[in-house]
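User: Sequence in, structure out. Go.
Assistant: Echoing your sequence, followed by the structure tokens.
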Amino acid sequence: MREITIGKNDAGQRLDRFVGKSLPLLPSALLQKYIRLKRIKCNGQRASRDQRLQEGDVLQLYINDEFFEQPREDNMFLTLFKPSLDIVYEDENIMLLNKRPGLVVHADETEKVNTLINHIQAYLYQKREWNPKWENAFTPALCNRIDRNTGGLVIAAKNAETLRIINEKIRDREIEKRYLCITLGRPNPPKGTIECFLLKDEKKKTARVYHKPVPGGKTAITHYQTLESRGELSLVEVTLETGRTHQIRASFADLGCPLLGDGKYGRGDVNRRYGETRQALYSYKLTFDFPTDAGLLSYLRGRSFAVKNIPFRGKYFK
């Protein structure tokens, strides 16, 4: 329990607004709940959220110590009262999440609070499976990333050993990820491999495609097969032999079949005609191949997980 004595400059404020400003990490909904549960009192008595504070009043706050800290990037998960997650699979070591398009995985210059990792940490904190005060260094972490406007499966590690194993398996290509996308036009041939070199343009945040080695360029190998075509649109399944930034988007644009809705590599006129503002790309299936030892995650060997409802597939290829 902590106490706050109301000074002259704080007098006259509503109790809930004063506490909200004093504890910016405490979600508004949780603040109201604590008032109802009498975990926030005034002068030892039950308080009401709209009562006006007087100079000399003493607030008793029966609130976890974490909420008294100053906001930082590593504790912003505390501000999420109701974490929103689409959990495809979860056990004591790992979580597989279906990230919706539009959600960033980590904080960036445009978003600090509403991120996938913050929702995961808030979820585990509220389940009492994790608390930063219990750990010396480990924090639940994402093992792979997906662009803001791409949806699909993301792996989260609940402990350090899981994080180490999954990172190793990703590096050794022992986890297969399959993608679905919609292209403008029909890839020719309908099934094949795109091999090229990608060079990142940090200023434009894009990748340029080259067909011969260039300084700074990285090899990109993309396997694909067309599942269905209707008019000018094709539904294509993709697997990656390499994992480069914007690899699928840039490679198919260079092939002459940019992704529907792609604002960087696609066709704006066609995207506007269909009303699409995000690339039609989804990391929809994941398989733990694990041909080598996987330690405490051996039970996942050979298991596959998939997202069944992919919005753009149902919209254009029912």
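User: And one key feature?
Assistant: The helical segments are 15-22, 28-36, 116-126, 160-171, 247-255, 268-274, 311-316.
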